[in-house]
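Can't paste images in this forum, so I'm doing it all in text. The chain is below; anyone willing to post the predicted structure tokens underneath?
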Amino acid sequence: AVGDAFVNSLRSKVRMPVGAYGVNYPANISVDSGADDMSGHVQFMARSCPNTREVLGGYSLGAEVADLATWSRIPPGVDQHVAAVALFGNGTRRIAPAFAGKTIDQCAQGDPICRNGNNWPSHLQPSYIGSGLVDQAASFAAGKL
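Text version of the structure:
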């Protein structure tokens, strides 16, 4: 739901076409295969459509996938094809230096995953959508495109 809301909001803020790619990985406790798939897609797009500006994103475990991909899976030089990174409910809260200026890391008030909160419902997807954090991130990404 967060990903769909983010893509729809981004589409409403830019005049260019916005495609979407769902990272293929088992959304369990492991993020390695997701980070590999995300990196593979970024590299494929950089080779196939070198003028395309990419936006990466993830919610909860997906945010950790994006974190890992930006830290160790996306090769130097290919990172220049990534315009923005939008993270939601990110438990790792680490931003790779090469992506620092183009990353927005959203954490809902009270979210125990990304903040020292104890309000478990604040980590759920409706909290991110309803609070305006998804729309804020879409505005940030649109500004980077």
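Strands lie at 54-59, 82-88, 103-106. The mean pLDDT is 96.
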